[in-house]
Amino acid sequence: MRFRSLISLLFLLFFTSSAYARFVSVRPSSTNLISDGINTVVSAEEKEEACEQTYGFMPCTKTALGNVFLILVYGFLMFTAATYLSAGSELLLEILGPGIVGGLFLPMLGALPDAMLITVSGLSGDAATAQTQVSVGMGLLAGSTVMLLTVIWGTCTVVGKCDLRDNIAVNNRDTKGFHLKDSGVTVDVWTSYAARIMAISVIPFIIVQLPQVLNSTSGRHMAVLVALILSVVMLISYCVYQVFQPWIQRRRLAFAKHKHVISGILKHLKQHALGRLLDDEGQPDEHVIRKLFETIDANKDGHLSAAELKALIIGISFEDIDFDKDDAVGKVLQDFDKTLDEQVDQEEFVRGIKHWLIQAMGAAGPSGPDAGPRTMKFLDHFHVQTKREHALLGDNENGENDEESGEVADPKWITIKAALLLLLGAAIAAAFADPLVDTVNNFSAATGIPSFFISFIALPLATNSSEAVSAIIFASRKKIRTASLTFSELCGGATMNNILCLSVFLAIVYLRGLTWNFSSEVLVILIVCLVMGGFASFRTTYPLWTCFIAYLLYPFSLGLVYILDYWFGWS
């Protein structure tokens, strides 16, 4: 259905582009010849009123209403291109898995429509024309980032909200309504890392802006070059991180599970030691630990075998956290068995338990809940902490995968389909990016509205619509895992704007010798990225009230640019 709509729209465009009429003259003829009423001479005024067609055949108009129609048409085509690129990327990911595909291709393909529009905005005509039209590219760059982190972020918070219990969202439970504090979303710790990366990605903006901050005119071209090199380096680094992130995540998750096993064993030993694992001075009590060793040593041979350790772990309730028992036994042996004889003697057991207890006390901190050496409350704190850490690292909801698992039915056909969708999406984006930029400039000329504000508001609706709909639908599943993926994608999209799209923009400015004069736009990007990035970097739960911060930043950004540009003359 979408493909048929696309074909119909293309036919409409081409037919309207060929609809011309000649002017009927009512002026008297100076000759005695009989006129047919048609004047083939075009006056200077008519030439001035005629618009320049993109590629020589695309439709154009000088009227405001006509340009609104063309913006809607070209915007729909860019939205279609983004949709095809997204669908092709998902199919490619299904075949090849994350790794290079998820780390390199998906982020770049997601930013391709924006990059196309930025490119054509700076390559059109001579340098003077490009300097005028490049504001469209900057408007898109700023508008896309701001929309992702404000309107879309706030909407995902609203549709994904769940009840908060102990400051953690409860999956699929939404009984608090729109309570501002007791309702919200929880994300994993990887989302916090994504937010920190996004905040760091604004550094090239700061560098390119330094000469204007210092009122220097001599170093502006060099600042553009330095910022360009840094943004390219950051782009490569980000892609490498994305490639290895699944491996890092697995290692972190395995470590979190091991810490949870440690806390479970310590709680189990505490129950059997009647809370006397620490002496009166708050230090591990070796005498009690040795008695516990004798209790666990079933065959009384003075050593704990792998089988005895596994029996201990199986007998402990780990509150539905799924892990490999044999792998857990292996990691316990690594902590305890210093002689590498695949068993643990009493001295090794005492040293290992003492080390675990000190580790747990350190996690509680000097102001933790341990009110005294004999209360052992620090173990409860350590247990809650490890459980929360495990949950925030994201473990597919205890083995449940939101996506369908299994082998792909027809990998060859899926690969061909993915390639066709990617080619079609890239072709549409490349073909209609230039006409869209021209139409925005024509609409700006017809209405007197600066092209920056048109591109800031209208163009992100076209290029980000597919991503926005996908994020909102995913957030509506009301799970920690889906919320984590949603907000990570939003941070990732803003990061790609700050490094990939900015790299394209800076390359155009540097190679064409254009003037960097976008102080207000850069300030808006910095404020939004640092506020939302700083907020999401240090917390994993977003109560419902936080959506108002996101929503208010959008009109604030528009108003700030207008005030700085037209009241203070920044740009």
From TrEMBL:
UniProt KW keywords: Antiport, Calcium, Calcium transport, Cell membrane, Ion transport, Membrane, Metal-binding, Repeat, Signal, Sodium, Sodium transport, Stress response, Transmembrane, Transmembrane helix, Transport
CDD domains from the UniProt entry: EFh (cd00051)
One Pfam family in the UniProt entry: Na_Ca_ex
InterPro entries associated with the record: CaH_exchang (IPR004713), EF-hand-dom_pair (IPR011992), EF_Hand_1_Ca_BS (IPR018247), EF_hand_dom (IPR002048), NaCa_Exmemb (IPR004837)
Gene3D superfamilies: EF-hand
Residue ranges constituting the EF-hand domain according to the UniProt record: 284-319
Chain segments annotated as transmembrane: 64-84, 91-112, 132-155, 193-210, 222-244, 414-433, 453-475, 487-510, 516-536, 548-568
GO molecular function: calcium ion binding; calcium:proton antiporter activity
GO biological process: intracellular calcium ion homeostasis; sodium ion transport
Domain of life from the UniProt record: Eukaryota
Recorded family membership: Belongs to the Ca(2+):cation antiporter (CaCA) (TC 2.A.19) family.
Protein name: EF-hand domain-containing protein
